[in-house]
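Deviations from the work plan: none for this task. Representative record:
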Amino acid sequence: MNAFSATDLDSANKRREHAFRLLFGAMTALLILPVLLILGMLVWKGHSIFSFEFFFTNPRNGMTEGGIFPALIGTLYLVTVALFASVPLGVAAAVYLSEYAPDNLLTRLINLAIINLAGVPSIVHALFGVGAFVLFFNFGTSILAASLTLAVMTLPVVIVATRESLQAVPQAFREASWSLGATRWQTIRRIVLPNSVSGILTGVILEVSRTVGETAPIMFTGATFYVAFLPTSVFDQTMAMSYHLYTITTQVPGVPEALPFGVALTLIAIVLALNSVSIAFRMILRGRKKW
Amino acid sequence: MVEADEERTTSKLCVDGLTIRYGETVALKDISLEVRPNEIFGIIGPANSGKTSFLRAINRMDEMTEGMHVSGRIDLDGEDVRTWRNVYALRRRIGVVFPLPVGLPLSIFDNVALSPRLRGINDRAKLEEIVERCLRRAALWDEVADRLDSLGSLLSGGQQQRLTIARSLSQEPDLLLLDEFSIAVDPVTTMRIEDILKELREEMTIILVTNLVQQARRLADRTAFFLKGDLVEVGKTEDLFTRRVRDRRTTDYLEGRFG
């Protein structure tokens, strides 16, 4: 036996190494499996319905035939209006919290509140939306009320993502800028924001992809079972993909099997497409090292 | 240690009873000294002596630092810096060079043009003139003249430090603060920067915090020795090194017995 031959301890470690590697690998496979199964199932059962008619016409014959056009457009409306509400508000709040707010009890409470807001179940947000936007502000059940409810729900995501990308900008840059005589705002505009915009966009896109799939917050605040016309203002009610899927699977008898699968597949495709854009952003961000 | 009243008016910077605290911790205890116009004023001392805090108090960076509290008086050209209404105008007069080079994540051109732009200079020709002049004075022009559009934050350490100096010069400061500028810089660049500082002395007052005793000896007209928040000694640099000092701790430090 020389200094390089394996001892009993070495071989035991080697066995353990193999075992843990296998264990962690299996866990990962277990995670990926459901995703693949769901996707496979959706494609298998839903692809046959895809046609021009499916994407670009109204539902017909008591929702059992026809397409999803108004729901698709409705979702687009809801998400866009929600973005216009949540992005300016969320980014501004994050800039304040990261760049201006002193580190005191109040700030810490606000941060805690934001984290807790992210943990509130979406049905509670829905009820809040009914109380605040539908009734109190008297928007009625409308795109505006539904979008604002979605915005409130996704605000924490925007704030946290923005704050984190702001704080990824080294403090030394701020100090250098301040000592040149720049104000906080000049520093934010010229140094901090330009270097965190990719991270903020990533957060925004993640928010969008979440908004697309939400059902509970919109079902009492603005989404409707069926409208023959596309919405013309933010005070109209609208159909939406997620709510449409919910109604045709639970409320309508005699829907052909492929229809809900087709709707679900479309919904997931939108979410995955948005997430891919977000991932692409992050890759560009990593590739372009700036310090 | 303010020498005489008539010298108060001729001093560039007059510090009286300056105490700096971070919460309960005292970083600098009741410091009084003066810096004369167009001199290089060296500050030496081991780590945690309050050297950096001293510099931060001069351009009121304490206001941007959580928990940093400054009391006492710092007069710049006879005027208490605390009473300056416009802190941004004050900071524009004071150039700062940090221990670790900070090339901002902007192009080399924009790094140097940032301060003029903050002052409202937007004329391209004027900016180009300022950028070239400052880069030349910082001995960086020849190395970057053909790539002013590339990122300043990706230059080498030595180049970034000269970029930082060029950026400070673009402020047209009359006071330049250097905080251990050579710790992340190679010896050749250090020597080049030291030469630059000797030239700059003609136009501005320089406060040089350094952990290299010999650097203070090479450059500083007068030198102060800070130790654990106390100003132990201040006087002509040559006196310090020819042992005409009053305090035993100074000789111990200079001869490398601690620190």
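The first strand of chain A starts at residue 59 and ends at 60.
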